[in-house]
From TrEMBL:
This is G domain-containing protein. Signal peptide: none annotated. Residues 23-116 form the G domain. The lineage of its organism: Eukaryota, Fungi, Dikarya, Basidiomycota, Agaricomycotina. InterPro entries: GTP-bd (IPR006073), P-loop_NTPase (IPR027417). SUPFAM superfamilies: P-loop containing nucleoside triphosphate hydrolases. It holds the Pfam family MMR_HSR1. One of its GO terms (molecular function) is GTP binding. It comes from the Eukaryota. It comes from Jaapia argillacea MUCL 33604.
């Protein structure tokens, strides 16, 4: 049931009494996630960057109370990029996902996929990783398209291109997608170039969060999560890996697992994906674990199709 249908939340309710929702933002570096957070907060609380280097799953939490209907906990993740070499370190990815789960003991109410630019392999992998693999298709999903400020009709562009997303197996309902402008653009004579679009984007995103968030957050017990999706996670990202996997248990220990937990998870990887794992001593930090790539046939068909979709943005200042 959507949050909007929750009874007892009256107009003008205070942030203390309003429901709290956990929202995960994901998408490639430079797509506009941080700019969307700053727009919703009404101030610059998240660092923005136009860089294309972002190949780990670092997560930052932002609590925003600017909407009296709800308190929004936004979790800004760094997704899978086709960055330098198109690679990602698997132990870091798994460890950061564990860290995110640990912070979301009360569940996930909504996923927001922020996209900018053409559909690429990483566009599809991010969708599959967060929506299908991580959240098991059990969390509502909203798509926000940025970088469309110079289109004559962004809404028409979105309607036309949602079909292209569906062809790429990114299935988004029309009423769960929107074009947004989370930047004001350059200032000229006291006015910002995209001020009107920026102002219109604030209620658009707030209403999507309010209307699409599930009142019953999705939860999964940690050990069950590892047991059920580690294999699919490995299969999904293994085509993008290069060389031998870095130590896994040490990364898990860095994310807060004690040596027992780190060893348990490392052993789970061994069991699930058939890799050789050397476990650390009981009283030692998990810093000598090595994971070798499996020789078994566990590959994911690499998506080679690339669709050049994006609008004709001449001079548009890109969000981060």
């Amino acid at each position: 049931m959507p949050l909007a249908e929750q009874a007892g939340v009256a107009q003008g309710s205070t942030a203390a009494s309003a429901p709290k929702v956990n929202v995960i933002l994901f998408g490639a570096t430079g797509c506009g996630k941080s700019s969307i957070i700053n727009m919703l907060a009404g101030q610059n609380i998240a660092r923005t960057s136009n860089g294309a280097r972002g190949c780990t799953f670092a997560t930052t939490k932002y609590s925003i109370e600017s909407d009296p209907r709800m308190t929004v906990n936004l979790f800004d993740t760094v997704g899978l990029n086709e960055g330098v070499g198109g690679t990602v370190t698997s132990p870091q990815a798994i460890a950061k996902l564990y860290s995110l789960l640990r912070d979301l003991d009360d569940g996930v109410n909504l996923l927001i996929y922020v996209v900018r630019g053409r559909i690429t392999d990483s566009t599809i992998v991010n969708y599959r990783l967060f929506y299908e693999t991580f959240c098991r298709k059990k969390v509502p999903l909203v798509l926000l398209a940025t970088g469309v400020e110079n289109e004559d009709s962004p809404d028409q562009w979105l309607r036309e291109n949602l079909e292209e997303y569906r062809r790429a197996e990114i299935d988004i309902a029309a009423d769960s997608a929107a074009c947004v402008t989370p930047i004001k653009g350059k200032e000229s004579n006291g006015c910002y170039r995209f001020q009107r679009e920026y102002d219109a984007s604030i209620p658009t995103v707030r209403n999507l969060i309010h209307d699409r968030s599930s009142i019953d957050p999705w939860k999964m017990e940690r050990k069950t999560w590892f047991a059920s999706i580690l294999k699919s996670l490995y299969n999904l990202i293994s085509p993008l890996l290069s060389g031998t996997l870095a130590p896994l248990a040490a990364k898990l220990h860095d994310e807060g697992l004690n040596p027992f937990e780190a060893r348990e998870v490392a052993n789970a990887v061994q069991e699930l994906i058939g890799n050789e794992v050397c476990t650390p001593g009981v009283t030692e930090k998990a810093e000598t674990v090595a994971v070798k790539r499996s020789r078994s046939v566990m590959t994911e068909k690499k998506v080679s199709r690339r669709i050049a979709l994006w609008p004709r943005n001449r001079g548009s200042s890109g969000p981060a």
